[in-house]
Amino acid sequence: MVPLHQVLGAPFFDAQGRQLWGATATSLVRVALGFAVGAGLGVVLGLAVGLHRPSQLAVAPTIHALRQVALFAWIPLLTAWFGNGDVAKAVFIALSSFFPVYLNTEQGVRAIPPTYREVAAIARLRPWQRLRRLVLPAALPSILIGIEIGLLTAWIGTVGAEYAIGTGRGIGSYLATARDVFRMDLVLVGVLVLALVGYLFSRLAHTLIHRLIPWRPR
């Protein structure tokens, strides 16, 4: 067992422990970039497939099939394609957030009641007006839920990619190094930081959702 004071003091009084802050900052930048790409693609493709019937028949089954692949099973393939550097990690993080955002966006668009579309046709809304005034407001709750899930899976994917690939900086690499030198105090404090960041991401997503759709139950 590691004494609690040793675990809590490591990031402040230990030379190796202080590296945790830089590693965490690197991971936060990495997750922000990967999530932005993955979530952006998820929303755009989800809207396109949800609105276009032929795409639902051609594209949606392929994406749903790829979603069944275990998330970390992509790492060997991505490292074979992109090497063991930051590119493979970024693609993996984007992939981690893409699937939940895409699926929720597509389902949100497909769930729009037909009467809404009839009203848009009667009002003779142009495609851009229909998207802005009808589709996005109606699908917004589902899109935001996908973003909430995608943010958390992106964080999990970030740490997992750093840990599994093992090169470069990041909190996942930090944990792997601490494990290799048998510094369980550093491993434990790293896990605490992981949990704290995940909790803050969850609160951030909840705050965003309740500001944009305040009628959603808390």
Question: What gap, in angstroms, lies between the N and C termini?
Answer: 39 Å
Per the CATH scheme, the topology name is MetI-like fold
Strand content is under 5%
Please report the first level of CATH classification, the CATH class.
Answer: Mainly Alpha
Low-confidence stretches: none
Please state the structural category.
mainly alpha
Give a written overview of the molecule.
This protein is an all-alpha fold and 218 residues long. The chain has one domain: MetI-like (MetI-like fold). The protein is built from ten helices and no strands. Helix 2 (19-51) packs parallel to helix 6 and helix 5 (74-82) crosses helix 6 (86-110). The mean pLDDT is 83.
What key phrases describe this protein's structure?
about 220 residues, mainly alpha, MetI-like fold, about 80% helix, about 0% strand
Task: Give the arrangement of secondary structure elements.
Elements: H1 4-13, H2 19-51, H3 53-58, H4 60-67, H5 74-82, H6 86-110, H7 114-122, H8 127-165, H9 171-180, H10 184-212
Q: Short description, anyone?
A:
The chain has 218 residues and is mainly alpha-helical. The protein has a single domain (4-212), classed as MetI-like (MetI-like fold, Orthogonal Bundle), CATH 1.10.3720. Helix content is 82%, strand content 0%.
